[in-house]
Structure formats: C-alpha cells, structure tokens
Request: fold
Amino acid sequence: METSFWSATVLLILITDPLGNIPLFITALKQVRPERRRRVVLRECLIAFAVLLIFLFFGRHFLELMQLSDESLRVAGGVILFLIALKMIFPGEESAFSGKTQGEPFIVPIAIPLIAGPSAMATVLLLSTREPARMLEWTGALTITMLVSTTVFLASGRLQKLLGEPVIAALERLMGLVLTAISIEMLMGGVAAYLKKLG
Reply:
C-alpha cells in the first residue's frame, strides 16, 4: 500500500487521537495551576515530538542491529494498531489515568504514553524503514500531527464543554473504526510481503 504524505499525517493523527484523549489529558492536569497549564502542554508536546523524531531517524538502525525485518515490523505494527483501535471502539473502565495524579506531570503520563505511545512509535518506525528516502515528508507529517495535538490540548477545556463527552466518545469510536481498517491493511501487507519473499 502506497503511503502518501497526507495519508501518513491522517494515520498519525488517528493514532495519537487528541480528541479522544481530552478527558485523560484534563485528568492528568488537574493538579496543575491554571496559569502553568499552557506551559506544561507546550513542554510535554515538545518532549513527545522529540521522542517520535528520535524513533523516526534512528529507529531503523536499531532494527538493523536487532536483525528485524521490514515485514515483521509491518505485521507487529498492524497488530498494535488493531489493539489500539479496538480499545478506541470498546473503551474499558480502567486506564492509566484512573488514579490520582500527584503534582505536575513531567514526561509521564502526557508526553509518554498519551501522545508518544507504543503505536505512534511503531508507526514512525514503519514509515522510516519502508521509505527512508522520504524522511522529509514523514518529518512534515509528524510536525503537522504534533501541531494538531498541541492545539487540541491547549483548547481541551473549551472543546470538552463545546462538544460534550458523548460527541467526543462518538468521534473516538469513529476514528477507531477507520484505524481498524488501516491496521488490517497494514497486517495483510506485511504477510503478503513475507509470503512473496518466501516464494
């Protein structure tokens, strides 16, 4: 499956799921003073951006060191995305944010894993290993994704009041449905490439 710049951008936005993460984000910032929240949001988004850039540019070398093939990464990425999509469609009661957040969050849990989670890391790894010649495009797609996430999180309070939790939950399920189709496509592509290599 050919991945365009815009399809990569949409995929990354779906995976980071800023709209669906609004309630968790607000919970994580409950203990932060209102005047500091903007600074915390910008800091955490920058940290997540830096982590994903590291995976984008240096993850390929790690895979080579571990002697992992592109096909295995595509299958693994498809499985991870499928599990994330199922969780978006059928959210459980328990989450990493269900407990009380003590003080100001730093790196965990907002930057990692709320924004730069395992699925986002696997996706940027997949993009960089499949088509390393297009790193400038993948960097641009990641930059747009992080700008969208930052904007949504900065306006999270207003968006939650404006849309309401039922609308946010419905949007998350819709994004989960789209992500399910993408994950199946990725999984089938990895299996097909592996079978072709065997043949």
Summary: Confidence is low (pLDDT under 50) at residues 94-101. Residues 156-198 form the longest helix (43 residues). DSSP finds eight helices and no strands in the chain. The helical segments are 5-16, 22-28, 34-65, 70-89, 110-115, 118-130, 135-154, 156-198.
